[in-house]
Specification:
Blueprint: E1 26-27, E2 31-32, E3 43-48, E4 58-64, E5 68-69, E6 78-87, E7 94-97, E8 101-105, E9 110-111, H1 135-147, H2 154-166, H3 184-211, H4 214-228, H5 242-258, H6 265-290, H7 299-316, H8 321-336, H9 352-373, H10 381-385, H11 388-393, H12 415-428, H13 431-443, H14 451-454, H15 459-469, E10 486-489, E11 494-499, E12 508-513, E13 529-534, E14 537-540, H16 552-558, E15 567-569, H17 580-585, E16 589-596, E17 599-605, E18 617-627, E19 631-644, E20 646-652, E21 657-659, E22 662-666, E23 670-679, E24 685-689, E25 707-712, E26 716-729, E27 737-742, E28 746-752, E29 758-764
Parallel strand pairs: 1-9
Antiparallel strand pairs: 2-5, 3-4, 3-6, 6-7, 6-8, 10-11, 11-12, 12-13, 13-14, 15-20, 16-17, 17-18, 18-19, 19-26, 20-25, 21-22, 22-23, 23-26, 24-25, 27-28, 28-29
Helix pairs in contact: 2-3, 3-4, 3-5, 4-5, 5-6, 5-7, 6-7, 6-8, 7-8, 7-9, 9-12, 12-13
Length: 767
């Protein structure tokens, strides 16, 4: 029997899943496959408890418009089989079936079916508004704030997020870049102007309806109709400035929805036509151009499902057929393929800043969808766990202590990160998440003054919606025993180790990474890297500054291995340039993680990360020992096909003291003593400098220098480097002694701390 052609699934494409290796965490399973043709197809999917697909044991779903599907029912535990076929032209039947794959539905999987397209919006009213509150909810909210103006934080929202826009003149349509070439400062100014426009339209419209206030209503309409007069193909179009476009679509969607009953027919039609055209630009890019259902690693396209398609299509549902089509796509993507950046452990490969941005819009979208359609996408397992990611990998008070692109680089976790994690406290009842929120909120007193907040979200609006929709959660401090001392995010290849997170003066965070995502998107060439924050001080840092995405600081320093705490081979780092395939192929693997009282251990392999740049590197394995929650031993094993040098890198805020095979990084509150206790190829040559190589000097105006340590070996075909790192409070003298037992096939090192506890570390001379 012939089979349907099945293109190979690569590193950048969706997989063929589920199969016999898939460990299902939710029921029903999510089905994905690669399209058989370049153009979009329609499919039939069969699921059966019979390997022969006997008719009475087989279920057929058709037509399916894309190469992914979530059934609308759950399955009994057991073994099942599935296959798919192309649907030919109308009435012409099906193609041959694909290969048959099997999967097992386990007991206890979370039940997360997605209602079918036919009945998906049965609970969705045709009346407006729909975004956040419906008419009955508005009346209840109105009564509550009349009784108590401070309920839900309404008084603060009204004073600081509504009144400022009441008399302000609408912002002019942004002008074009000089010669239509993007300039970072103008790009940012443009999207911040559009964010202010969103604030004005959304806040004035919501307030006018709730308060039944004619003056506020007039101001809201003035802003909305002004924005609708802008050219949707102009400077705020998706292809000219996508961040500006996202904000304007959101503004028009909220205005159209909440002012729907207050606009005349002509006004309403003009707004809807504008909203439809702007939404179509985004939908076309997502579905037809980027095709994130085939290649999901487009950060902005995935985010626009939440920030654009969800609110805009909800606002136009029942009125524009295309809106339903795009909303179906978004809901099915959320239910099946989301998120491409993590998995069931809740990790986020792009790092905590893009976790914050991506989840902020997703949280808004999921709340709007649930409130209006009663479809609860938060039930998926990822959302029960993802609050762990910032908790462990971007802990309160830590600075320069996490990986990936970060507009907040050099500052503690942002308040929006805290608002996001509070959402998951409300969903799960997890008091650790509530503690995180309260700790960050207490420390971040000037959040609105920071561009990465003001240009993205209004905390008073967010707070009002959360306090209306979710219950209070009691905070739980992360005292010893309340959190995992070693936390492994298998889905993204990050491991976090903590001591006393509950006390900033005693807290130590050691974060390591070797990720299957490589350096794609907002990830960097930092596989087998580590970061250390101790006693309130960043000691081994994520170096550089946030200037702008695509700046020379970003391309030539921040993304490159030269700025990371890992290794160079003959002065060359991991691939982290513009080829997406090579970026994804420049991956690492966390091979083993162990945790026991007083000790943590991680083994990582970053050999593949150097394949494109150092093809003669056979292996780079790094082992990290976190001993007695007070010091770190790093064992690096490098094997080459020809003699070469390995350079051990570490970065610090201040100039380090170098002496022999030792270095000392000194901060205001804490210090880090480092020592190279063994190197198979002889003593290392230690040096440091304070330059950002390859960075345009104009981008460095007003920025403080940082210091970059390099400890380089002599040339050899193999290197075994053992380093000891001892963080301590300023002025403290911790002492860790060691003894080396050099044997034929390996080395045993014995480390003894001040309390007399001895730990053994083994080093293999050959792999």
């Amino acid at each position: 029997m012939s089979k349907l052609f099945e293109p190979a699934s690569g590193l950048l494409t969706v997989p063929y899943e589920p199969d016999e290796r898939t460990e299902l965490a939710e029921n029903p399973p999510r089905f994905t496959w690669m399209p058989a043709k370049p153009e979009e197809d329609r499919y039939a999917l069969q699921v059966s408890s019979s390997a022969d697909f006997e008719a009475n044991e087989t279920e057929t779903f058709e037509p399916i418009p894309y190469n992914f599907y979530t059934p609308d029912r759950v399955y009994e535990p057991g073994t099942y089989y599935w296959r798919y076929a192309l649907l030919e032209e109308e009435g012409a039947g099906r193609s041959d079936w694909s290969s048959v794959r099997s999967f097992v539905v386990p007991d206890g999987a979370v039940e997360t079916p997605l209602p079918s397209r036919e009945r998906r919006y049965e609970q969705a009213s045709v009346v407006h508004p729909r975004l956040w509150l419906q008419p009955d909810g508005i009346e209840a909210f109105r009564r509550r704030i009349r009784e108590d103006s401070s309920a839900y934080g309404w008084d603060v929202f009204y004073e600081k997020s509504v009144l400022p826009w009441l008399e302000k003149e609408p912002i002019p349509e942004p002008e074009r870049y000089p010669d239509n070439k993007r300039v970072a400062k103008l790009w940012r100014r443009m999207y911040m102007d559009c964010q202010e426009t969103l604030y004005a339209i959304r806040h004035l419209s919501v307030t006018a309806v709730i308060l039944e206030d004619e003056a506020i209503l007039s101001a809201a309409k003035r802003w909305l109709l002004h924005v609708v007069s802008w050219d949707p193909k102009g400077t705020t179009s998706r292809d000219y400035n996508d961040e500006a476009a996202f904000r304007i679509v959101g503004a028009v969607a909220w205005g159209y929805d909440w002012l729907h009953g207050y606009l005349n027919e002509e006004e309403r039609a003009a707004v809807r036509v504008n909203l439809l055209e702007r939404t179509e630009q985004v939908a076309f890019h997502v579905i037809e151009r980027s095709r994130i259902h085939r290649v999901p690693f487009d950060s902005h396209a995935v985010r626009s499902l939440s920030s654009v398609l969800a609110p805009a299509c909800l606002a136009m549902l029942h009125e524009e057929p295309k809106a339903r089509e795009w909303l179906d796509y978004a809901l099915e993507y959320f239910s099946c393929l989301y998120t491409p950046w993590g998995g069931k452990d809740g990790g986020w490969a792009e790092g905590p800043m893009y976790w914050t941005t991506g989840l902020a819009y997703l949280i808004d979208a999921f709340n709007l969808i649930r409130n209006y359609t009663e479809i609860d996408l938060f039930r998926r397992p990822f959302f029960a766990k993802t609050g762990d990611f910032p908790l462990y990998c971007n802990a309160p008070g830590t600075i320069r202590a996490s990986f990936g692109d970060q507009s907040t680089l050099g500052e503690p976790p942002s308040l929006k990160t805290a608002y996001n994690i509070r959402q998951f406290a409300g969903l799960t009842g997890n008091g650790l998440y509530q503690w995180y929120f309260e700790r960050v909120k207490e420390a971040d007193r000037d959040a609105d003054a920071k561009f990465y907040n003001y240009g993205w979200w209004d905390f008073r609006f967010d707070d009002m919606l959360y306090r209306h929709d979710y219950p209070d959660v009691k905070p739980v401090a992360p005292v010893p025993g309340a959190i995992e001392p070693v936390k492994w995010f298998r889905d993204v290849g990050w491991v976090a180790m903590h001591r006393r997170m509950d006390d900033p003066d005693e807290h130590i965070q050691l974060l390591v990474k070797s990720s299957s995502y490589g350096s794609i998107s907002h990830s960097h060439g930092d596989q087998n890297g580590f970061l250390l924050h101790a006693y309130g001080e960043p000691l081994a840092i994520d170096s550089g500054y946030y200037v702008a995405f695509g700046s020379t600081m970003h391309r030539n320093w921040r993304r490159q291995t030269i700025s990371k705490n890992t290794l160079l081979i003959d002065g060359i780092g991991q691939y982290a340039d513009g080829d997406k395939v090579l970026c994804k192929e420049a991956y690492g693997v966390v091979e083993e993680v162990r945790s026991e009282p007083g000790a943590g251990y991680v083994r990582m392999d970053a050999s593949a990360a150097y394949r494109a740049t150092v093809p003669y590197l056979r292996r780079f394995v790094r082992e990290m020992y976190w001993l007695d929650e007070s010091y770190i031993v790093i064992v690096d094993s490098v094997d080459l096909d020809r003699p070469g040098k390995a350079a051990w890198l570490m970065h610090a805020l201040n100039r380090m003291n170098l002496k022999g095979q030792t270095f000392r990084a000194i901060g205001e509150k804490a210090e880090l003593e480092g020592r190279f206790v063994y190197c198979s190829s002889g003593e290392l040559a230690l040096s440091q400098h304070d330059r950002f190589t390859g960075v345009d000097p104009s981008e460095l105006d007003g920025l403080a220098n940082q210091w970059h340590l390099m400890a380089e070996t002599q040339a050899a075909t193999g290197h075994r480097i053992v380093s000891l790192l001892v963080p301590m409070k300023k002025g403290e003298n911790k002492f860790v002694s060691y003894f080396i037992d050099d044997q034929d096939h390996g080395i045993h090192l014995y480390f003894t701390d001040e309390r007399g506890t001895t730990r053994r570390v083994a080093v293999n001379k050959a792999y």
